[in-house]
Amino acid sequence: MFFKLFGLEDGEKTKLSKKNLSILFAVSEVNGLAKSGGLADFAKSLTESLVKLGQDVRLVLPDYRKIVDNFNREVVLSTRLEHWPHTAYSVAKLSMQGVPIYCIRCSKYFDRSDMYEENNEAYTDNGERFAFFSAACLDILPKLAFCPNIVHANDWQTGFVAYFLKKRYAETEYFQSMRCVISIHNAAFKGMFTYEELQYLPEFRLRCVPEAEISSTHVTMLKAGIVCADKINAVSPTYAEELKTELGSHGMQNEFRSRSKDFIGILNGCDYSVWNPEIDKYLPKNYRATYQSMSFGKKVCKQALQCEMGLPVKNVAMYGMVCRLTNQKGLHYLLPILDNFLEFDVQLVIIGVGDPFWVDQLRTISTLHCTKFAFLEIYDDRLAHLIEAGSDFFLMPSEFEPCGLNQMYSMAYGTLPIVRGVGGLKDSVKNYDSDSIEATGFVFDKPSSEALLVTISRSLILYIQNPKEIDRLKLNAMKQRFFWSDSARKYIAMYRSALSESA
Ligand SMILES: Nc1ncnc2c1ncn2[C@@H]1O[C@H](COP(=O)(O)OP(=O)(O)O[C@H]2O[C@H](CO)[C@@H](O)[C@H](O)[C@H]2O)[C@@H](O)[C@H]1O
């Protein structure tokens, strides 16, 4: 079926399937080393799944200061980038769960407190930093004698990988059989810079790079990736469709539409070795998908969550939310109705870091409703797991959501997601109002606070009036499976189609 998706015939499928692929996976964060959000989960889980399916995958990321040095890292290369006058760099190699990882070590760019920003201000030289990283991703290949079939770029930070492969290395034999794919995790972040900021790149000195240009003064790294990659995917089928529309494309509908033949959606998976209430080391009580185990386990976890967040320990509907505090996550739908919502007999827990505008408001409202609403400005893995387990409902009223992972994590923990029907949320949550038998959560469509309030109220009424039905839905949700191995197979099909079409 996946081969059909890309128009390959069965004969070709057999021929191509015989050989495992080698893949360089270029990404700006990976869970376990450096994480700011879902991109890091994606990088770790997909590369591990590809390795389990027999592919030779090597990951490359910047060697940030925050990467803790408890791996046995070996420096395998010390070199410098041609055309990049002052920047010597080295490559430290480590291995995580069977995936070799090359860390690009360049103190000028990456030995800083954080990855992209400090005190909510993006680093002013991010263009230079990630242009350098993208160039280094390819520069290391002949020097390390690794000649992958596929270079897999992710989001704007590695958009120039595709550009360099297509342009800078077009005539270089070593690179000629390599093909590039790019995954779009969030097209709202485009990596927009002036030509001025990219003057280290000889190609940009004449200020005429149509592949990346969006005006006479500015370029975006994401556009370069979309224009130059052989294949493109968004992280859910619905987001792939949204990206071709004016409303959902973050202003890039023309670029996405012009590549529609090479553009598909592949839904992310859920890593059940990490997000599984049966084995989760962060929970005070583990549980599985049977009525007794789930209701007792979730009750203990709810009490632990209430204690930890300073809320009264009582049997009450618990709503949870864990996210980066940005406009994307729909806080502008939630905040106007919070006072109303908190008049009900409910509790709400939110943790997140991000925009001070949202932090201040959440803090103020939580002080006013301190017996019902706890907010912590914190990034904390353990608490994220406890919220998933101890809540009855998980809020994701996103403005847009390329895929979303927390709704999948919620379902695994028997916590019903309340989501807006966009992107991957639409593709992964079955709405109670559309199919009450198969339902795994609640979905609303209208981008409004009222629509969210109606849906939350509906979930609460069901919780109070028909707790057995809620438990049935929770068990439904726990039995859902979004395997990374399924996603990985679709990526392999995309890689093969990139290779076969250009062969
Ligand atoms: N305060 C906190 N404490 C602990 N953990 C926290 C946290 N805030 C966030 N996280 C964690 O960060 C991850 C967030 O993942 P998401 O996919 O929901 O969103 P994100 O928008 O970052 O990712 C983008 O990329 C991914 C991957 O493709 C897409 O699914 C998504 O739609 C797209 O926006 C989860 O693992 C979550 O638990």
UniProtKB/TrEMBL annotation:
Pathway: Glycan biosynthesis; glycogen biosynthesis. It is an enzyme of class 2 (transferase). Its EC number is 2.4.1.21. Keywords: Glycogen biosynthesis, Glycosyltransferase, Transferase. GO terms for cellular component: cytosol. It holds the Pfam family Glyco_transf_5. Residues 23-254 form the Starch synthase catalytic domain. ADP-alpha-D-glucose binds at residue 35. GO terms for biological process: glycogen biosynthetic process. One of its GO terms (molecular function) is alpha-1,4-glucan glucosyltransferase (ADP-glucose donor) activity. Signal peptide: none annotated. It catalyses: [(1->4)-alpha-D-glucosyl](n) + ADP-alpha-D-glucose = [(1->4)-alpha-D-glucosyl](n+1) + ADP + H(+). Residues 318-458 form the Glycosyl transferase family domain. InterPro entries: Glyco_trans_1, GS/SS, Starch_synth_cat_dom. NCBIfam families: glgA, PRK00654.2-2. Belongs to the glycosyltransferase 1 family. Bacterial/plant glycogen synthase subfamily. Synthesizes alpha-1,4-glucan chains using ADP-glucose. This is Glycogen synthase. It comes from Candidatus Photodesmus blepharonis.
